[in-house]
Amino acid sequence: MAEKRGSSITRISFFCLFLTTTVMFVLTSRSRPGVFDRKSMPAEKLLTAFNNGDSQTSNQSSVESANERKGVEGGFQLSCNGNLKEPLKIYMYDLDPEFHFGLLGWNPQGNEIWPDVRARIPPYPGALNSQHSIEYWLTLDLLASEFSENPNSRQAIRVKNSSEADLIFVPFFSSLSYNRFSKVIPPSKKSKNMELQAKLVTFLRNQKEWKASGGRNHVILAHHPNSMLNARMQLWPAIFVLSDFGRYPINIANVDKDVIAPYKHVIRSYVNDSSDFDSRKTLLFFQGAIYRKDGGFARQELYYRLKDEKDVHFSFGSVQNNGIRKASEGMHSSKFCLNIAGDTPSSNRLFDAIASHCVPVIISDEIELPYEDILDYSEFCIFLRTSDAVKKGFLINRIRSITKDEWTRMWEKLKQVEPMFEFQFPSKEGDAVQMIWQSLANKVPGVNMKINKSRRYSRFVTRKRRGLRIVPAPKNFW
């Protein structure tokens, strides 16, 4: 009996000793932050996502308010919720100026390849040329990153060694090349645009970076639907930055491989918007080309359905005769703005509507939208299937059924998301330039997986009596 009591006491003593030791360890570790040093942990690249206008990371939906601030620790940027984030590393080819700023009339001095963006920036042509100008803004942003006092505050930075890069950037102003240099000028038999595309294909295929990845980690800007028409079939492994997929075969361009970027809006932004549901007198607004080829049949159908409706503006319009000013005034004074498929699924009209805080009504079954992995467009847009929209009375009844409170919620959301569609230099956090870089960053893991898979059989391993010998792949193995 005494032995049992003694063994019981011994077990209790050991338990108390264990409990005391554990409590002391926990208290000590809390007072000494060095016990679990964050710097000894592997740094993880975290991509910032925007949800409802707030910055969040994809792997953490909520954080304590004490962490919701910016800072720098251990050489990495802290995003606004306290998580570590590295900028996207971009290697940009030093292409001859004829591919980029030379198309704007910039004349380099001596051996210059790039303009000094700290001194003077070559201007980009306005009006409809500017709507496909993303190549210009992204290139400027990379050049500016070299002079940044705090590179880790940026979404993307230029690196000079391609082995350090996440992606390879091809600075060809393809949309500008198409818009300005597509005509054949005798005695030439090819346009300058075609000649530049041919030169670019030859250049890229001779680069070690292209050969190493098969082009998969290269970023090519082809925002105008007709840009890169000659070269796209040869450069398809690259990531294309496009306005939509309307004129691309699915095996050449698709949502898994490529990035959709917004147009630059051409009408003026609605600064200090003090309007409301009642002050916007026009219910539904559309101004543009009414008779279109390809998928644009819905425009003419809707024109005949809506032209006699009261408080609806549906008219032909162009950039001539102050067309942009008239469109600005019309959108700023309208509750809803129509975005109907034309020659292609997308148009600049959507982004003009966002800049005007005019709730977009999207009638385009094949449209792909920028940042849709981040943004829920249904919070500030109305979507209608084309087959429904062209039915008698369907569209106008749907619009009239939306209450003042519903419209006001969408209008407020439009004002929140508008900065994500603004192109500017210098770029700012959360603007269109930074959002495109983020969309490209989201492609990096998939690109790396494809490159690694392609290398599975790029080396042959043969056994020898004394170990293994690596045999290089034969020529043209890729």
From TrEMBL:
Coiled coil: none annotated. Residues 85-398 form the Exostosin GT47 domain. Keywords: Glycosyltransferase, Golgi apparatus, Signal-anchor, Transferase, Transmembrane. Its main location: Golgi. It holds the Pfam family Exostosin_GT47. It comes from the Eukaryota. Residues 50-65 have a biased composition (Polar residues). The keyword Transmembrane applies. Belongs to the glycosyltransferase 47 family. It is a single-pass type II membrane protein. It is found in: Golgi apparatus membrane. Residues 50-70 are annotated as: Disordered. This is Exostosin GT47 domain-containing protein. GO terms for molecular function: glycosyltransferase activity. The keyword Glycosyltransferase applies. One of its GO terms (cellular component) is Golgi membrane.
